[in-house]
Structure formats: structure tokens, C-alpha cells
Amino acid sequence: MSQVEKKVGLLRRSSSSKKPLKEKVVLMYDEIFAKEDPSKHNPRFWDELFLMKVNLEYLESKLESVDGEEVQRIQDNINSLFHHCVQALGEEHQIKVVNALQTLCALFRGVHQKNKSSSGFDIINMLMGFDKAELRMKDLMESLDSLLCGDGSESLKSLCLKLLLCLVTVTDNISQNTILEYVMINSIFEAILQILSDVSSRGRHGYDAVVLLALLVNYRKYESVNPYIVKLSIVDDEPTLDGMGMVVHHALTEYSRQYKAKEEENQGGFFSTLTTMVGNMFIADADEKLSVQTNEAILLALYEAVHLNRNFITVLAQSHPEIDMGVTSITPSPPTPTTPLGTSPPSLDAMNNQEQLTLDPNLQTSNLLITFLKYASIVMQDTKEEHRLNSARLCLIILTCIAEDQYADSFLHDDNMNFRVNLHKMPMRHRKKGVDKNIPCRPLVCAVLDLMVEFIVTHMMKEFPMDLYMRCVQIIHKLICYQKKCRIRLHYTWRELWSALINLLKFLLSNETTLLAKHNIFHLALLVVNLFNMFITYGDTFLPTSNSYDELYYEVVRMHQVFDNLYCMVLRVSTNTGQWKEHASKVTHSLVNVRAIINHFNPKIEAYAAENHISQLSEEQVLEVVRTNYDTLTLKLQDGLDQFERYSEQPREAAFFKELVRSISLNVRRNVSLSTMSQDLLLKEFSTIS
């Protein structure tokens, strides 16, 4: 029995010698795949077809099984099927509309699956006829727009969005999907905005709408003018932008809730007892399972909004009640075993209930940025696999865009906007896992810096994520540049940052040979040293107290061996011929003030110890030596320390986003299957209506 026959709906078996009877809809599909016009002998053929329950599996497999010669033979019938599907979308009979939408999805998927190697023009010709394609797609997009914007059934709107997601993701590379040219011409951008601006509509369809928009924005974005990019960049309607922010917020919150639930599940019972007995040897493996899947689609949507629309930055800071997903009565249904963690949209109840909560003066407030930082603190923990590495990279790109924005910087550093942000931390042998409950309320920039420090401390490993480290240090630099420019004295535990950076330099030195085989470690070392130069040169303008400035010098002097070793290494490389000569030379020059501090204070400290007959000085005694010897210290003014290269997606990040969108498209295609929407439930709903 062929694969196609296996998928035919069986009505009954009268005897073992007789073939099973086929469903009527399957017989009608067979007529379409015959040479003759199916309506020739039955004028009501198309009316009857759309009253039949669609057999998606059979129709798709039939399209996939058609060979080259057959395509030519049945093309007129396929074109006619597409045309009548579009016509049926305008029917008052809702069952016809449902069946037409599902049939269109089967057509798009089946034809593309069969013709993966064909050109987009051949696929358009097979589906609708090249000469009529513009008119057919115009009618289709207008019908979908009317259904999405009308007062009709929510199930139909959901089906329309599923069809659009199906259409957008039928090719692995969405920029090779020629049919999307018609989606560019006949824009549904306003329909998407309408969904996002309405509370009820957003709760039901916001997730699909946001993912659809993110994908459409990435269609040939570097090759031509994409109208969705242009329109998204100028949206200034507050309810719409808030709506987009709420959808992203709820999706990221749901991921964190699922992660927390799995984390608590793994901490109980036999597993907990076993790990207690043998130490932390299994913790890493357990946590790898907690963050297997990330939600790059919703993260991409957040990136496009932040990157393209300056008005969206205000949405990041909008306060609302923080929902403790662990204790709230909201119980979203868990994803099915086939749905990866975090890829399913949050439940409707969860979204509606959270939006209707009133602000309690005693309740801790939150905002989209805090939700994003918590999410980032989870996905950035483990970067060993490529998809996790890409997710962490996208988080850091989003933070880069935020750190460069003047308005974002102003609310990040606003003393009147203090929040308690509990970031997730990676389990390590020298500290207990768990969220710190004693975090004070601080400006949001402190949480960003905490996240960067946490990453720096926890990812010094054999498979060194150089790109992520570069981005982390650059984000810190951009934030400090803003503080220096605006003379903001941030009360932050700067010593933790200095310690993390010095340990990073120590790691680079210890693994010089291994790392140089893959990376230019001198570029990262230069960024780190120049961060210290920023503190040394301009610290008196943005460090909170004079004591903080003293502590900076104390840390440099205390860890002088690391800087001495770094200088020896870069001097050695820069005085020899080789590919790293020029890069090492830059680091050599950047160390001039650090070395001046070390060479100035070390003899003073040694003299003080000898004079007072003390073998080991306390921190306070060293600080006293530092304070009394500033006057005789000579430093060089270094230019350009507070300058940085602004983020630009093209050309540097183009390859990354191309592969990211391909991955998201494949994932969406797997998860958005119209067959998963219960046809029986849909048909029952509309049978009742009619």
C-alpha cells in the first residue's frame, strides 16, 4: 500500500477481499489530481468541497507525490483549487471559511515540500498561475486582513494567523520565499497592530502576531526596502507599543515560570539526596536539562522593536505589578511533550489575569526590562550548545542597543526608579545555588552590571565564548561612558566588577597558547585594560565616594602580579614578528598608567611595612599609604577612552541574523501545524453558529 493510500481516511472494511472505502473528500481530492476539470460534470463541486472536513495529511502527501509531468497536467486544477479557496474566504458560511483556510495551508506546504529545488516563480505558477498571481494574492491578503480586523470568530482569526505563519515559514530561508513579495505589497501590518492594541485580541492572538511580525521584518531586510521595517520604525501609538511589550513580557515570564518549576522539581526527592551526598558533581548536568530550549522568536521580536523603534524604549521602563509565578493562582497549562520549553505562548488566562491586576502599593513592581534581565540570566548560564550560544548572543545584542540609547540610559540610572531584581545564578562549587533574597532596591543599571559580572565570572572555560565576553565588556564600557558624561555617581559594588575583570585577565594569561589558536585575546585584554583606564582617569567624576577611588588603586596594587604578567606577555609578543604583534603592542601602550600606579605605590607600601616592622599589611593600612601618596603620582592622559563604536547590524551581524531567522523559521514551522488545531472543535463551533 502506498504512503498516500495509507493516509486515506477509512470508513469501513466490508471484507478482507475488498478495498477500504475512501472518505468523500479524499475522492474529491483525487478528482482534482486527475486531468479533467472536476467541476465539468459536477457544477457544485467547489461548493461541496468546502463543506467537507479537510484531510490535511492526504492533500499534502498527494501534492508531494506528484512528479514533474503530472504537475503540468494538473496545474490548471491546482490553480482552480487555490482560486476557489480564496473565494471561499468571503463566504458567510463559516465552515467553508475554516476549510478554505486549512486547504490553503496544505497547498502552501505541499507544493513547497515537493518543489524545494524549484525557483519561487515555478512554485507561484503551480499554485495560482503566474499571470494571475498578483490578483490572487491581493484577494487573499485582503480577505485575511478583513478576517483579522473584523468582529468575527476568534478561532477564525487564530486560523488566519496560523495560515500566515505557515506561508512565511514554508521555506528554510524566508528571503527565498518569493510569495512573500505579495505579502510586502499587500501589507497586513495594520491588522497586526490592531491585534496588539486590543487587550482581548492581544491575549488570544498576540504571541502569533508578534512572531509573525518579527519574521516579516526579516524578509530580504538587507537586499531591498522592507515596508514592515519602515512601518515598525515609525509606530508611535502607545497602546500598540504597550501591547507588543506585554506579549513579550508574558512570553518571557512564562519561560521563567517553566524553568523555575523544573528547577524545583529537580531539587526534590532522590535527586536532591544524591547530590547532597556526592557534592555538586551532577549539578551542571541537571541544569543543562532545565534550559534545553529557549525562545529566540520572541527574543527576535524584542530585538527588532528595540533596534528599530526608539519609542519602544519607553515600554521597557513601564512599571506594573510583579507576579510571583510560583505562588500566583494562575495555572497556565504546561506545554505538551512535543513542545520545547519556552516556545509555547503563555496561556490566555495568564495573560488576561495579569493585565487586569490592580496596582497594590505594597507589591513589588516590575517592568519588561526586569523580565528580560531575568530571562537573560537563565539563558546565558549555559552556552555550550550552538542554539544557547546564539540566544545568549541575542540577549547581549539587545542589551548593547539599550546601553547605547540615551533615554534608556537615563531610566537605567534614575535614582527614583529603584527595583529589586533577582537574577538566576549558575551553580558553582564555591557558592550555593539560589536567588539572593537580600538584594536591595537599586537603579536598574546595577542589575545589568550584575548580569555582566555574573557572566564574566562563570564562563572562563575551555570552549571560551570570546564573542560573548567582548560584548559583555563593551556593554559595561558604554554604561560607564554615560556615567562619566552625566557625572552619575552610582552606588554599586565596583570591587566585584574589578575583581571579575582581573580574574578574566588572569585566565587569558593562563590559557594563552590554547586561546590564541582560536581567538585574538589581545583585543579582549585591551578592552579590559581600558576599562581600568576609564576608572583611573575619570573615576573621580562617577565613582560614588573618594573611598571607592582608593579601593580601585588598592585592587590594582593587590593584584599587581596579574598586570605584571600581562605586560611581560604582550611585550614578548609585540617585540617578535607574528600575526599578533600589532594587537599586543596596543595592549602594551594601554598598560602605561596601571604600571605607573603599581611602580609608584609598591615601594611606598614596602617602605611603610619595613618602617613599622609589619610583615603583612591590612587593607586599611595599604589604603592609608595610597591616600597619602597620590600627590607624587604622575599619570598620562589617554585619549579616546570614553569613545566607542556604535552598534550596526549590517554588515557585522547580518550572517548571525540570517542563520537565527532560519532556525526560528524551522521551529515555528514545526510548532505551527493547523492539524494540531482540533478540526472537530472548530467544525463543532461553526456548526453551532450556523
Summarize the entry for a quick read.
By secondary structure, the chain is mainly α. It has helices at 3-6, 24-32, 45-49, 56-65, 68-88, 94-114, 120-128, 133-149, 154-168, 180-185, 189-197, 199-217, 227-234, 238-266, 269-278, 283-290, 296-308, 313-316, 348-355, 368-379, 386-404, 406-412, 444-458, 466-486, 494-510, 512-516, 521-542, 546-558, 560-574, 581-590, 592-611, 619-627, 654-671, 679-689, and strands spanning 320-321, 365-366, 418-419, 442-443. The longest helix has 29 residues, at 238-266.
Could you characterize what this model shows?
- The chain has helices spanning 3-6, 24-32, 45-49, 56-65, 68-88, 94-114, 120-128, 133-149, 154-168, 180-185, 189-197, 199-217, 227-234, 238-266, 269-278, 283-290, 296-308, 313-316, 348-355, 368-379, 386-404, 406-412, 444-458, 466-486, 494-510, 512-516, 521-542, 546-558, 560-574, 581-590, 592-611, 619-627, 654-671, 679-689, and strands spanning 320-321, 365-366, 418-419, 442-443.
- It is elongated.
- The chain contains 34 helices and four strands.
- 64% of the residues lie in helices and 1% in strands.
- Strands 1-2 form a two-stranded antiparallel ribbon. Strands 3-4 form a two-stranded antiparallel ribbon.
- Helix 5 (68-88) packs antiparallel against helix 6, helix 9 (154-168) runs parallel beside helix 12 and helix 27 runs parallel beside helix 30.
- The chain has 690 residues and is mainly alpha-helical.
- The model is unreliable at 3-8, 10-15, 269-289, 324-343 and 352-362 (pLDDT under 50).
